[in-house]
Design goal:
The protein has nine helices and 15 strands. The protein is α/β, with parallel strands linked by helices and 309 residues long. The longest helix has 29 residues.
Amino acid sequence: MATQLSPHRRRSAADQALDANALELFARIAQAGSFARAARELGLTRAAVSRRVAAIEAAVGMALFARSTRSLSLTEPGRRLLARARTVHEAAEGARLALRSERDQLGGTLRISAAPVFGVHVLAPLLARFQILHPDLRYELIFNYRRVDLLREGVDLAFRATARPPEDWVAQPVLRYAVRLYGRAGRAPLEGPQALAALPCLLVGQHEDPTEACWLHESSGARHEMALRSAAWGNDLDALLQMARHGDGLVLSPDFCVGPEDGLVDLLPGWRLQLSEGEAIQALTLPMPAGSETARALVRFVREALASA
């Protein structure tokens, strides 16, 4: 004996056949005027379009299209359904246009947190370029060494040097870097990290007492541990870089802060300071839907700009 579908199950099939996607598809096929044209516009095969329409008609129990060898027209139930389907199609198309407009012309205010060394030397020029592309966009910049809580403090995007980003944030690496030893141009390179024991160092952070450091040779993998004695320290790397340019102090700095025109040279070629927090700047955003799509667009821009550089 054939199994009879209950009214509840028949309603479920019809509901599934006439969801928003199906209604929009129906409206686009009716607008195209033929299955073949609709298939080209939708990027589907003609057979796939025919199957989708047949499934909708089977579920609702009515023919929606009158087919002939040369034309495709709507039946009376099809014309009634088209009025509602057009509303769905227009709403969906309006949403897509709004999203494309938001993507292409971003606006609003982004709250961005970054360490000053990265924010000033790398991020600020890229923000200026991104703002030229999106003139309605504004920035609130929070450049300090404090680790902010994005959700609690309403920050949209944080750039942070970390090897262990928070699990509840979306982390994307944007820049790998190394911390090296720099001194004013004209100074001879040191024979090795051991030569630092008697030399004045300029260090970011609180370093009133000797600071343990581990140097790693990039080619051989050799390691050298020692205590650094600071001649000056503080939270302003630019001031320490200036001191190194004009005096005998040696400054430890990320390589992205020093260029060939800065009057500084690497005094320990091939050596870099081993960092507990990792050697990559990560862009941290909140996951969707809490995260900002504008922040995600900026992360893509920064990653592509730094990759090409």
